[in-house]
Structures are given as structure tokens and as C-alpha cells.
Specification:
The protein is of the alpha/beta class and 170 residues long. It is built from five helices and ten strands. A hairpin with a 2-residue loop joins strand 8 (134-135) and strand 9 (138-139).
Length: 170
């Protein structure tokens, strides 16, 4: 099984997390192809059955620039039969009223276009006011905060990879 890991990153934090995920999946025998969304086409993206999308939230709930450019194309894509997981980067202390909003917007679009979302993540160890990335007590994917909880990034990545491997039947 091949995973397409697609990310957008402006400061390098999301890119670093994407490569950490790639290494963790490959250490267990999975094949991962990593792409920056700025150099991706919709045809390439839809070539994967398994996908991981990485996106930071910018400013007050905005999409990262490369994802913002690509985002309109998602409305013309059919994700039926695709297994998609989303991870988001945010700052719950500085932007607690829109923490991980971009990940939520991306996850919602995948669902609207018929995709199956995997890797839901508990909100229990976070302290934020609002997020478009929640469904009850869960994020629609992994939430990372290298500004306020950097020490938790590595254990969260490890646990999320294990969860996705189980959910995807790897």
C-alpha cells in the first residue's frame, strides 16, 4: 500500500512533521510518497487510495498560502473510496478561537467530496476556545502545536501513526 502525504508549509513546521510521519510509516514497512501541495496536481492526488494532508492554520483561521491556491480544485475532485487523514498545525495559546481551523476546512471538503476520514484525535489534552476542526470531543485529525506543546509532538505523531495503521489495516 502506498500513501500520498501532501503538505503545505510556510515556516517549515508542517513540512518537518510531514517528514517525521513519512519516516515513522516507512519504518513499519509502508511506502510513502511525499509532496508539497504547491507542486501537486489533482490527478496526482487522486492517484492515491491512502492520503495524509498536512496544513497549518494561519493568522485568524486562514488556509496556508499553497493550500489556499489549491483549495478551489478540491470542489471538482471525487474522493469516493479514498482513505484520508488530516493533521493540522496551530497555536492554541495565541489563536485559541480558531485553533486548527484550516485542518477543519480541509477535512470538511474531503467529506463533502465523498472521501472517508480517518485518524480522529481527542481534544482532551488541548486548551482552546473554538475550532472548525472538531466533531464533539475529537479533532477531525491530529492536532499539533509546536508553539505551546512542542514536547508532545513526537508522542502524538507516534500514537497517530499506530492508529492510522490499525484503521487502514496495515
Amino acid at each position: 500500500m502506498k500513501i500520498g502525504l501532501i503538505y503545505g508549509s510556510s515556516t517549515g513546521n508542517t513540512e518537518t512533521a510531514a517528514y517525521q510521519l513519512k519516516d515513522k510509516f516507512e519504518a513499519s514497512g509502508a511506502s510513502v510518497e511525499i509532496h508539497n501541495i504547491g507542486a501537486m496536481t489533482s490527478e496526482q492526488m487522486l492517484g492515491y487510495e491512502y492520503m495524509i494532508f498536512g496544513i497549518p492554520t494561519w493568522n485568524t483561521g486562514e488556509l496556508q498560502d499553497d493550500w489556499a491556491i489549491f483549495f478551489p480544485q478540491l470542489g471538482n475532485m471525487n474522493f469516493a473510496g479514498k482513505k484520508v487523514a488530516v493533521f493540522g498545525m496551530g497555536d492554541q495559546n495565541g489563536y485559541g478561537f480558531n485553533f486548527l481551523d484550516a485542518a477543519g476546512m480541509l477535512a470538511d471538503e474531503v467529506l463533502i467530496q465523498g472521501g472517508d476520514l480517518y485518524g480522529y484525535w481527542s481534544t482532551a489534552t488541548y486548551d482552546f476556545a473554538e475550532s472548525l476542526n472538531t466533531d464533539g470531543e475529537f479533532f477531525l485529525g491530529l492536532g499539533l502545536d509546536n508553539d505551546g506543546q512542542e514536547e508532545m509532538t513526537e508522542p502524538r505523531l507516534n500514537k497517530w501513526v499506530s492508529r492510522l495503521k490499525e484503521e487502514w489495516g496495515f
